[in-house]
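FORM 7B: Structural annotation worksheet

SECTION A. Query
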Amino acid sequence: MPENGAVNDPDKRVLPLVVRIERAAPPQRTDALEAAARAVLALLDDPRALSGEWAADVKLWETTGIRKVVRRARGAEWRRVLDLPGLTVTVRTAEVRVHPPVPLDAWPRDLSRLQVSGTDLADTEEPGPFEPPVIWFNPGLGMTAGKAMAQVGHAAQLAWWATPEEARTAWRESGFALAVREADPEHWAALEDSGLPVVRDAGFTEIAPGSCTAVADAPWLPRGADTAWGPLRRS
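SECTION B. Predicted structure
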């Protein structure tokens, strides 16, 4: 994602997300996307990220970019991942583990050895009815599930930053319930101009830089205003 100003490489952080994909029982795509978004929210609200042992890395990550990388694991790989600091979120068929931010070029070995490729999941049935909040993703971009998981994670994070405390409390009590859905083209065009938190990708992988990938929509989020997040930044 774009960088505002010079940042020393050793200071750069990335948020690892690991999705469990067993050969015999891969998760549904929508379940994995929703689990990724909820995992990001759970980490942002965790006491260890707010004032505990993860806080310094989270703060550095938020001020140097909020890059997220999704990898896959199965079997013994997944069991090793569970031994590392982090949180696991389960949404129906999907399990996603989020870890505190790590240096861009110094991942823990049991995470760095995991594959990024092979996360192109599918829904075998149409996703069911949903209630807001919802993260809409761009119907015109052919993203793998891994790429889309990172994008909806960004959207969830922007939504969290824009959420007032009273609404945060209710969202927290719901277990960060949300839905992820693909918008139809007409709806997407309206969402891009709505003033809701929108993710613009840096173009590191799969899609062109500056592409709008996802929009977060919730009843408490303001519309028609400049949310001033910029390219995945609070400042």
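SECTION C. Observations
The helical segments are 29-44, 47-50, 55-63, 75-82, 109-112, 145-162, 165-173, 185-192. Residues 1-8, 228-235 have pLDDT under 50 and may be disordered.

SECTION D. Sign-off
Analyst initials: ____
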